[in-house]
Amino acid sequence: MTATVSDVLDLVPGWAGKSVERLPLTGGLSHQVGLVRVDGTEFVVRVLDPAVSTAGLGVPLEQEIANTVRAAESGVGPAVLHVLDAPPTLVLEYLAGTTLCADAVREPARIPKIAAAVRALHAGTRPFVNDMDIFTKLAELLGLCEQHGLTTPEDYREHLPLVDDVRAALAANPLPKAPCHNDLLAENFIETGDGVRIVDYQLSGMNDPGFELGNIAAESQLSSELTELLARSYFGEEFSPGLLARVRLFSIMSNFTWTLWFCIHHGLLARPGSDFDYWGEAAAKWGRARAALAGNELGRLLDLARRG
Q1: Which residues pair with residue 90 across a beta bridge?
Q2: Taking a C-beta distance cutoff of 8 angstroms, is the pair 129, 60 a contact?
Q3: What is the pTM for the complete model shown?
Q4: Closest CA to 218 of 189, 272, 182, 174
Q5: Close Cβ partners of 280 (under 8 Å, ≥ 6 residues apart)
Q6: What's the rounded Cα separation, in Å, for the pair 270 and 265?
Q7: Other C-beta atoms lying within 10 Å of the C-beta of residue 16
Q8: Rounded to whole angstroms, how far apart are CA atoms 193 and 190?
Q9: Of 1, 86, 176, 209, which shows the fewest CB atoms inside 10 Å?
Q10: Which tens digits make up the pLDDT trace of 36-81?
Q11: Tens digit of each residue's pLDDT (9 = 90 or more) over 114-130
């Protein structure tokens, strides 16, 4: 049975004999995450479920822990206060601020702040201990679906030849890899008085920064105009139509690949009584990916990305 937050509270160094109070906290689609108050100070306790990485839905736990520590060193992630070996657990700084939602990410005035946080993660963090490539991940997740006989969208595999075209276009002018989060749904941004911080390094790894930006655009369903604002804010003077095309193609791949993440979670790890609709999220992501692959702009984006 997977350990819970309550199971580890007595194991945290220095907490024995203190007043430990559980507080409400939303979030955590895979690992067990809780907010606790210890003698008046609040902490986030993240109990890592080995089944998540076994199912291909996260990097190996030792990599997630190491990358979380490195993101904390840069000041972008929350401080790591304790690491427990058994059960594997992170005790993190509680970031007092506002957890963003997709509507908040779509506010034009906030997008430059988000871009600044992402650039700080990429430029100011020691290299993460592993690599992450979305095309390699796609092949891995497809293999897991086949291995376990999991349901995927009916016409999913019919679109794989187009994915090969996208991969070839993106390979023509790759960007240097950076320490990337790779799962920047809106709720992984915390806006504080000092800017935007980034939490939850379950899928982190060295990756193309274009994927990071495309993933943000996909998760918060940014319009083409807001995607361009995000790319311009991140790249600054280096911005070009080729880089924007790169971001938009990676946005398609984010939806395409993470469709399978939710198919696998639905089939293998859905918690009894959970009110999150994993299959519904898979269907929504697939609908957006399929529409983009069938859209009139795909050919132009491929050409721009090839030219750089």
Answers
A1: 46, 83
A2: no
A3: 0.94
A4: 182
A5: none
A6: 6
A7: 10
A8: 10
A9: 1
A10: 999 999 999 999 988 888 888 889 999 999 999 999 999 999 999 9
A11: 999 999 999 999 999 99
Which stretch of DSSP H or E encloses residue 21?
strand 20-23
Reported in sequence order, the residue ranges of 85-213 that DSSP labels E, i.e. its strands, are 89-93, 98-99, 178-180, 189-192, 195-198, 205-207
Q: Are 156 and 259 in contact (CB under 8 A)?
A: yes
The DSSP letter of residue 131 is B
Q: What is the DSSP string of 22-47?
A: EE-----SSSEEEEEEETTEEEEEEE
Nearest-angstrom CA–CA distance, 47 and 66: 15
Tell me the C-alpha distance between 280 and 259, whole Å: 10
Which CA distances in Å does 188 have to 20, 220, 264, 268? 25, 11, 21, 24
Give me the amino acid identity at 97: G
CA separation for the pair 123, 285 (Å, rounded) = 30
Euclidean distance between CA atoms 230 and 235, whole angstroms: 9
- Contact indicator for 253, 214 with CB cutoff of 8 Å: yes
Q: What whole-number distance in Å separates Cα of residue 152 and Cα of residue 149?
A: 9
User: Residue 109 to residues 48, 106, 143, 198, 233: CA-CA distances in angstroms?
Assistant: 35, 9, 41, 18, 11
* Joined tokens for residue 39: 């003698």
Pull the structure tokens for residue 180. Answer: 């990337």
- Residue whose C-alpha is closest to residue 53's, from 125, 166, 146, 132: 132
